[in-house]
Amino acid sequence: MLQLAASGSVADGDWLYADRQTSGRGRLGRDWASPPGNLYASGLVTLRHSDPEAATLALVAAIAVYDTLKIWTATQPLFIKWPNDILVDGAKISGILLERTNDAIIVGTGVNLSFNQPNLGRAITSMAALGVSPPDPKTFLETLTEVFANWLLLWRGEGLAAIRTAWAERAHPIGTALSAAIPDGGRVDGLFDGLTQDCALRLRLADGSQRVIHAGDVFLI
Questions:
Q1: What is the pTM of this model?
Q2: Between the CA of residue 36 and those of 22, 68, 80, what are the distances in Å?
């Protein structure tokens, strides 16, 4: 999708999906196991001058994946972990990775429908592992593209306020204990204290002070 976007061969709103990936990767270059039966898809958003900050598309994508998953997993305890991982009772079921080339944002999306890789050192699940009969990936993607398009329109038309509210309604609750591995190699532990106006993560530290995290790898503790 990055290559197609760079060549101008795809348009805003186009999606590309694979039955499987041979070199799937997640955040920080981590391997992403990609056997048949799960969703592996990338959507294109072409930035406009009037758009909000591009990084906040991570929240738009998270809301869209959450809402799509809820169609099939209505009784499951889903929530979003900042900024865009979808967890079920603490186990990851979906990951989203944004990449940029010029004014094109690629929204890489993986959802564990039929398979979850074991022994990763962290809790992972899938719809099948939850006892839910998963849709085929193409059906899931058809729904996801419609849901994403609707949230994208809201992001562009009304800005971040509505997105922050929708994200918070689907996220871990205020006071959730989180640990953030930040880019300088440090780690910040604290309690979730909501989002800033620009959708950065706020943590309440043990001494009562507040720390704002704009980038980092966040874990439940």
A1: 0.92
A2: 11, 20, 25
